[in-house]
Design brief:
alpha/beta
């Protein structure tokens, strides 16, 4: 690989501060740490869906994306590895997360490595990753990393830091996603 691997995190958190953003940042850091250990050069970006909420609504209704939304969509579509994280509301991803994804070019997502993350108030919502998020990215034809990370409020300990159990899951997921993205990039380069 001659160019850095483009790692993009899309966070669908709606609060401020956002535990979803915290999880997203932790997943991004885990991927970066795995890349450093593997000697893989990466570039890192984060896209906050909530920052584009009004533009997403306008683009959905009017069919015209603002320059800022257009750039955010291109960043997501151009990722080699997409970290996609959303809070869980009523058993599924956040509406702004889904509305943003509705504007993403499905062809650009085909074969893209995706690492899934979600947050919720309790562990009762952890199936949202498998019941809602995996099918969404299967529709796109994305390559979803085997380990996804769900974090409830109890998984964030002192000062909003990941507990050791959560930190271990994040590290494992980040490493798996990086290895999958590198293998995919090498396969595309050799094709």
């Amino acid at each position: 690989m001659t160019e850095p691997l483009k790692i993009v995190a899309l966070t669908g958190g709606v609060g401020f501060p956002s535990t979803t953003r915290t999880l997203t940042d932790d997943l991004l850091s885990a991927v970066a740490e795995s890349a450093t250990a593997a000697g893989v050069e990466v570039s890192l970006r984060t896209v906050e869906a909530r920052e584009h909420a009004a533009d997403v609504a306008n683009a959905t209704v009017l069919g015209l994306a603002s320059p800022a939304l257009d750039e955010a969509l291109h960043v997501v579509e151009g990722a080699d590895l997409l970290i996609a994280a959303s809070p869980v509301f009523r058993g599924s991803y956040a509406g702004i997360f889904k509305a943003f994804m509705d504007l993403v070019d499905p062809v650009a997502m085909r074969g893209k490595t995706v690492l899934l993350g979600a947050t919720g108030g309790s562990s009762r919502h952890q199936l949202a990753i498998d019941q809602a998020m995996r099918p969404l990215f299967a529709y796109f034809g994305a390559l979803v990393a085997p380990t996804a990370v769900y974090a409830s409020a109890d998984d964030f300990g002192v000062a909003g830091r990941a507990t050791p159990v959560l930190a271990e899951r994040i590290a494992r997921a980040g490493d798996e996603a990086l290895r999958l993205a590198v293998a995919t990039a090498r396969a595309h380069a050799g094709a």
